Amino acid sequence: MIEKLTPPGVSFAGVGSPGASVSSGVGVNGPGGDNSEVSCAGCSNPINDRFYLRAVELKWHASCLRCVICQKSLDDAGTCFAREGRIFCKDDYHR
């Protein structure tokens, strides 16, 4: 599952590995957020950004969600693929 947290009313569509879904919402520090500390799965630093990504049930800074093979940023890709807890771009997932 990949979830790009965005302002209310904005949708984010894409496809992923079988069973993956994409949804939208607001980051923890956005309007109505609870300001609880959230750590990034990529760098382990707190996520203080207004928006963040959620993939494979983990939260990521937009700049930290990258393919484990080619290091391509997946922030604007709209999709990511997961196998054994590792994140891939479409091309590397299908290799």
UniProtKB/TrEMBL annotation:
GO terms classed as biological process: neuron differentiation
One GO MF term: DNA-binding transcription factor activity, RNA polymerase II-specific
InterPro entries with a match to the protein in the record: LIM_Homeobox_TF, Znf_LIM
The keyword Zinc appears for this protein: yes
Source organism (scientific name): Portunus trituberculatus (Swimming crab)
Name of the protein: Protein apterous
Protein origin, superkingdom: Eukaryota
Gene: ap
Biased composition, class Low complexity, residue ranges: 7-26
